[in-house]
Amino acid sequence: MLKIVNTEWKLFLREPSMVVFAVLFPAILLSVLGAIPALRTPDPNFDNQRFIDAYMSSLVVVTLAFLGLNKLPTTVATYREKGVLRRFSTTPVHPARLLVAQVLVNVIAGVLSVVLLMVVGRVVFDIDLPHHPLGFVVTFLLGMLSLSAIGLLVAAWAPNARAAGGWATVVFMLVMFFGGVYLPRFLLPDFLNTIGEYLPPGVEALQDSWLGAAPDPVHLGVLALVTVAAGTVAAKSFRWE
Predict the structure, then answer these.
(1) What confidence tens digit (pLDDT) does each residue in 111-152 have?
(2) Is 70 helix (H, G, I), strand (E, B) or coil?
(3) Residues sharing a CB contact under 8 Å with residue 217, sequence separation 6 or more, in sequence order
(4) Which of 168, 174, 145, 142 is nearest to 155 (CA)?
(5) What are residue 43's phi and psi, to 5 degrees?
(6) Domain count of the fold of the chain
(7) Cβ(174)–Cβ(28) under 8 Å?
(8) CA-to-CA distance for 147 and 227, rounded, in angstroms?
(9) How far is it, in rounded angstroms, from Cα 201 to Cα 68?
(10) Segments forming the whole domain that contains residue 189
(11) Which residue in 1, 2, 23 sits closest to 12, CA to CA?
(12) Partner of 200 at 20 to 30 A CA spacing, among 63, 69, 81, 225?
């Protein structure tokens, strides 16, 4: 298992675009936004906090969405299309381990991205670290697992790698929209914000735990439910060849 994870990690590093967008881009975007003086000024729209403080949770959503919905479905569908999963099934190593390795690589990359984001935010812009660390870690892991389960579901249902990429892109755009990446959440109507609170990867729970409150157990429960439901359906409908 460790050998598979190590190999998948090396393959991930050989994809410059994914490394840039999933690991480096959130910190780069924070640097660009933080260079704008108005976004470093306390604003009543953010409870007298700065825009860059309130936007940190959306930057985490960027990482989770790229890894769970861009990288995972396309990679898994490509492996199936090229016969990699079928060949694995003829060995003592079950191909399911390859899927587990994909999720573990996503978690590792996600952790690196968030750590880099925290370092840049703290050192350059004096942004506080998450005030509720345990709640943030739990939400981060559930957010990653829920989006990974959805990504595997897309890979299970898509007929080929191209279709998997297209389907996943639609879900990716919805996650980014409701996660406040395209538009700050205070600009969205209340009903859209309410929907976004309960959708993976849990932007409201990420923001609460970052700014000091414990995440709502209902939000965490929804993430866990999506993980179990999507993961179960993906496992039952997945085609190895």
Answers:
(1) 999 999 999 999 999 999 999 999 999 999 999 999 999 999
(2) helix
(3) none
(4) 168
(5) -135, 135
(6) 1
(7) no
(8) 8
(9) 10
(10) 2-237
(11) 23
(12) 81
